[in-house]
Amino acid sequence: MGTTLPFLRLLTTEELKQIDQTGRRILERIGIKILDGDVLSRLKDDGAQVDYDDQRVRFEGGWLDQVVNRAPPSFVLYSRDGKNDLHLGEGNVYFGNGGRVFRVLDMATGGYRLTKLMDVGNTASLVHNLDNLRFYIIACQAHDIKPVNYHLLDFYYALNHTTKHVMGGCTDLHGAEQMWKLASIIAGGEDIFREKPFVSIITNTVSPLTIEANTLEILDFCANRGIPVTCAPAPIAGATSPATLAGTLSQLHAEALAGVALATVQ
Length: 266
Fold this sequence. Notes:
α1 crosses α9, α4 packs parallel to α5 and α8 crosses α9. The chain contains 9 helices and 12 strands. The longest helix has 20 residues. The chain is an alpha/beta fold. The chain has a domain of 118 residues.
């Protein structure tokens, strides 16, 4: 007979509600810094409260709900072979690898070295053959290639070694454009890739409560082309966010909500 294990609940329903409410109060009272004048104007035209002198946007509760609700409640991150599609928003949980590291333990020499492009391919192959990992995050930095071709080549190596969904970070708009062109060629056309995107982009807020121009350009580019994108906060408790877990989670939630809102305001 099978054994039923209890769910691990780090936070109660009431605590989650408090974090959500606090994150929303942060956006309404403090707001978030937006380092792009055109985006500030777009947000103002959509109904947000904009302070141009401070480059700060405040998200009134009703307006925030309105723009967040424009985002789809569920969607699919596709694999290329159809065997590892990720259906998000339906209560499913999927596991992937972590990223992105800068050094690796070289199994041939026993010593540490800077990661290379071949390590992207090797880690992608590893994830591809691990049934319990359903998607691949580009795991390491390729220090042996020029920055101008960095995103083109690391996505190429990842896609050449797995048919699972590939997620990867882009540091600027040029990198996102490289990924989009590559994925569209592999898919057989831009429209085909838009219909079933098998690649998604990771970008980040700057904690505390700031979104800079490169991130805003990437969000806008992806939203207009149907590319899945996450604006992932990465606060450091006690440094770029409060020292307490509750405070850090509330700030993280505020930054994540702001990312979703910005992706829907076109």
